[in-house]
Design a protein that fits this description.
Elements lengths: L23 H8 L31 E6 L8 E5 L5 H15 L3 E4 L2 E5 L3 H11 L4 E3 L7
Parallel strand pairs: 1-5
Antiparallel strand pairs: 1-2, 2-4, 3-4
Amino acid sequence: MAKKSKKKKIPLGDTGSSGFGNSMADLLKQSGLVNKDAQVPQEPEESTQEDLPERDFTKIKKVVIRHETKGRGGKTVTSLTGLPFNKEQLKQTAKEMRKSLGCGAGLEEDRVVLQGDQVIRAHKWLEEKGVPNIVLGTRPKKK
C-alpha cells in the first residue's frame, strides 16, 4: 500500500502576507492606489420616535378597513387604506397595531396589512385613537 501524503498546513498567524483577511480597499491602500475624490460614506441616521412628526388620527378624513383573501393562498388579511402618513409613520402605526392587537402587521405600498380577520378589532383600535370616519369594507358572508 502506498503512503498517504500529508496535507500542507497553512499557518493562521500571518494572514497579511497572503492577502487573505484583507479587504480590497486595504490592499489598494498598501499598493499606493488611493482615490482622492472618494467620499467617506456616512451611516444613515436611524429615525427615532422623537424625530417623526406627530401622527394626528383625529384629522384623518376616512379609513377603509377591508377583509381580503385573494392572492394570498387562501389566507385572510385585513387591510387599512386611507391613512395619510408617510412610510415611517405607517411603519410605526403597523408596529403599534401589531403589539396592541396581538397579530402580525406590515406594509404593502401605502396600506397597513394585518394578518387574520381583524376587522372589528382594528375598528375598535382606530376608534380609540380618535379616527372620525371608519368604513368597514368587504367582508365574506358567514356560511
